[in-house]
Amino acid sequence: MTKLWRRHRWWLTPTLLILPAAVLFSVVILASAVESLWISLHEWDGFSPMVWIGLGNYRELFADPQFYVSLKNNLIWLVMFMLAPPLGLAIALLVSQKIRGMRLLKSLFFIPLVLASVAVGVVFTWVYTPEFGLLALIFRTFGATAPAVLSDENFVTFAVVIAALWPQIAFCMVLYLAGLNNLSEDLIGAGRVDGARGWNMLRHIVLPQLTQVTFIAIAVTVVGALRSFDMVSVMTSGGPFGSSEVLAYQMFEQSIFSYRFGYGAAIASVLFVIMAVFIAWYLTRMIRADERGG
Amino acid sequence: MTFKWIEKPSTRRNFLKGAGGVSAAVLTGFPMPALSQSSEVTIISDENNADALQILRRIAADFEKQSGTKVVINNMDHEAHKTAIRNYLVAGAPDVCFWFSGNRMRAFVNRGLFDDISDLFEKEKYKDVLGATTGAVTVDGKQYGLPTGGTMWGMFYRKDVFAEHGLTVPATWDEFLAYGQKSKAAGLIPVSIGTKELWPAAGWFDQMNLRINGLDKHFALMNGKMAYTDPALKPVFDHWEELIRQGFFTPDQTSFGWQEAGAFLAQKKAGMMNLGAFVKATFPEQDLEQLTFAPFPKIDAALDRYEEFSVNSVHIPANAKNKAGAREFLAFFYQPENFGPYLEPGGNVPPRNDLPASKDPLVNAAVESLKTVAGTSQYYDRDTDPDMAQAGLVGFQEFMAKPERRDAILQRLEGTRRRIFKI
Q1: Which of B87, B89, B113, B254 is the best residue to mutate to test the A interface, defined by the most A CB atoms within 10 Å of its own CB?
Q2: Residue B264: which CATH number?
Q3: What is the pTM assigned to this prediction?
Q4: Mind listing the pLDDT tens digit for each residue in B87-126?
Q5: Chain B residues interacting with chain A (CB cutoff of 8 angstroms)
Q6: Which of B81, B114, B255 to mutate to probe the A interface, most A CBs <10 Å?
Q7: Rounded to a whole number, what is the distance in Å from the CA of A239 to chain B's nearest CA?
Q8: Quick check: is A4 in a domain?
């Protein structure tokens, strides 16, 4: 027995250690992803027998104008969310200065991270409410009328993304604050000796040391933008008339309200492919960067 | 009742004794005293009204005392319940659940998920006290639920606002248009509506369609037998567009939910609002006596009066474990002295005709109004297929905001109808 164990220890130990995570991952993530792909090839209302329709759901999806609206909104989310890492870095740089009162400021910037995103959504909905909202009041003091941003199909997605950006920026700020704490004093000292300061210091000494943090910040932000759902659900329910829907919300709406689980699964599969492409690209870059960093 | 064990002061020792006893019993194979399914009734309710829920809990406690059957009430959020029910009816059914009569009930009956309770109807002679409302819970001559509260839809307004501005209740289309001009001149929004939750726009469509095309054609549309591009619908949208163009409705209505729209009415900023009596939730207590309602104005004078009357209901799932206990509980719950108080806080119209008159004048007015109605529909999203309803709700919301897109919207709805009803 012990002999057997000794001979096979080299592969048994890692296997046993990985097993729980692998089992969990394959049941919760892989199996459900495969099942969802399977469902997407059927017409299914959630409890009747499933009817095989092959690629019918996908054919309908690619002819569905709502799909392109959602896709476009996902793109808007993605592009606007890219503001979060640089803004987070800027705020992190600001609050890491040793100035009196910065501790208070830091905690203020930290607040949106503590709030549930639903609460953020509700608060911003109030801000945007025509006539009594904060935005309307601000506009009124300048003698103007605030646009009803949540009722305007052209503004609504931007309004929702701004609400979602608030906690996302705070999240990036926390990441960068942690990164700034780990800067090498030696390098900064050496840079200072060489006369680097201000922008040059940031660009050539500080930022290179934050590459890893930036990677994580960007990855989390992209995934956050693609899976955006809660804000849309709380603030607009996808409205007005579907103009603020994103893929994740459309999937939810089709499955839960319209009871079209097959169609919803098809949307989920498309979203899955988009995410998979990004993650593959991101991972290869990560690995390459690791290799270079050695 | 639930939660009782929390109130009971229990020592750790008692708990250990109990736990030890149970594990000993399990280990020795001693037959467990049946914490029997037969003496427990589980209920899933979706009551949003705290007072009504409290009364339901009290009824359950009374039933517990009387029959010795334990009653467990799990109350869910009203909206969340709508999706949860599909799961629990199949996977783990309670003994009693609350739902909606009509087409929404039929969807589950057709899949064999609700128990036939015609025997209970027979035994308790419910048909005698329910009259026509029995139809709302009947499929193919069998009854599958008990109707609970009904919501009568109408045009709600404040008496004091109407008196102050010299407005009169519009009974015809021309009067309605004149009312709009007059209330706008008085600085009021003629009709308050909030379409953020989508359905209020569909209710408006129902009202117009019932007034222009009548009940039969309305149901043909609901059942997928009539096209959304049918010329019969043209006058409906023409009339509707006329109102939109004349600025009848709350501006930026997609930003508001029905509660905010109701607040416009309560705060005297709007003249009328199309809703059920539950709009009173947006009114302060002292203003409630000002709230009243009138039927939607007539458009085609030759048509009978049809109204929207949605009836909620309570059912026994087919997969319930204790169907006998559930029947006993329903019979107890449905007795006038229990059922009457349960309906009271929500301002719902009682389906039983042997209940004492309500303390709520709105309920009594609705009861009177119902007597003169030739037929009722329930509501767009209750009368048609749920998938169709979702597309329709979005379409009507869009139409109210962008009436110029009418043709595109109707084409889209027609495409959805063809897909769903397989035409």
Answers
A1: B254
A2: 3.40.190.10
A3: 0.81
A4: 898 888 999 999 998 888 988 898 889 999 999 989 888 8
A5: 83, 86, 89-90, 111, 113, 195-198, 251-256, 260, 386-387, 390-391, 394-395, 397-398, 401-402, 419
A6: B255
A7: 7
A8: no
Looking at the fold, whether B122 and B217 belong to one and the same domain comes out as no
- The answer to whether residue A281 sits within a structural domain is no
Q: Which domain holds residue B160?
A: 152-309+369-420
Q: Are B326 and B191 in contact (CB under 8 A)?
A: no
**Nearest-neighbour CA in chain B from A130: distance (Å):** 7
Q: Do B317 and B376 fall within a single domain?
A: no
B253/chain A closest Cα distance in angstroms: 7
Q: Which residue type sits at B349?
A: V
- How many domains does chain B divide into? 2
Please tell me whether residues B194 and B250 are part of one structural domain: yes
B395 contact residues in A (CB cutoff 8 A): 241
Cβ–Cβ under 8 Å, residues B49 and B345? yes
- DSSP codes of every residue in B127-145: HHHHGGGGGGGEETTEE--
Total domains in chain A come to 1
CATH of the domain at A114: 1.10.3720.10
Q: Is A181 helix (H, G, I), strand (E, B) or coil?
A: helix
Q: State the average pLDDT over residues B267-272.
A: 93
Distance from CA of B158 to the nearest CA of A (A): 22
Nearest to A242 among B251, B253, B394 (CB): B394
pLDDT in tens, A87-131: 999 999 888 888 888 888 888 888 888 888 899 999 999 999 887
A129/B255 Cβ within 8 A: yes
pLDDT in tens, B147-201: 998 888 999 999 999 999 999 999 999 999 999 999 999 999 999 999 988 899 9
Mean pLDDT of chain B: 86
pLDDT bracket for residue B17 (50, 70, 90):
very low
A101: left (phi over 0), alpha (psi -120 to 50) or beta: left
Domain that holds residue A205: 64-259
Same structural domain, B118 and B196: no
Is residue A253 a contact partner of residue B390, using CB atoms and an 8 Å limit?
Answer: yes
**ipTM tops the 0.90 cut:** no
What residues of chain A score a pLDDT lower than 70? 1, 293-294
CA A39 from chain centre, in angstroms, equals 26
| Bridge partners, B311 (sequence order) | B150
**Residues β-bridged to residue B275:** B154
**Is the residue at A247 inside a domain?**
yes
Which one-letter amino acid corresponds to residue B162? F
**Chain A residues in contact with B251 (beta carbon < 8 A):** 130, 148
